[in-house]
Specification:
With 131 residues, this protein is mainly alpha-helical. Helices cover 53% and strands 6% of the residues.
């Protein structure tokens, strides 16, 4: 999957987030190797220093480990640690903003529950009412 780079964050942060998503989605499991810096740099047309910086943030966060001469590997328990951290981040940063928007729009819990499991249908834009 080719990430789409945007200007809102440095590319190394976006690449780190892409790797985190792969771990959370189960694409990368405990003990799995990460693609080499050279391969990622070539595949995504990035500077190898950018890829190394993204990988280093994963090492710093204790999500991956560097094995000398072998490469980078997902650490045991990385997914569990990520889920805990991402849930905490969501509840502390994102949920309060969503809650304010829900309140501002006058939505009620039953409105939200009624929409659970339903997303935009084919050809229907996000937020467009069902007809």
């Amino acid at each position: 999957m080719q990430p789409k780079w945007n200007d809102s964050q440095p590319i190394y942060v976006q690449l780190r987030d892409h790797a985190v998503a792969m771990i959370l989605d189960g694409v990368l499991d405990d003990g799995d190797p990460l693609p080499s810096v050279r391969k990622v740099a070539a595949d995504f047309r990035l500077n190898p220093i950018t890829v190394s910086k993204a990988y280093q943030t994963l090492v710093d966060d204790e999500l991956v480990e560097r094995r000398r001469g072998l490469g980078m590997f997902v650490r045991t328990g990385a997914k569990k640690a990520l889920l805990e951290a991402e849930r905490k981040k969501f509840l502390n940063r994102e949920w309060p903003l969503l809650l304010k928007k829900i309140e501002r729009l006058g939505l009620h819990p039953e409105d939200l529950v009624a929409k659970l499991g339903t997303g935009p249908k084919n050809g229907q834009e996000q937020g467009e009412p069902d007809v």
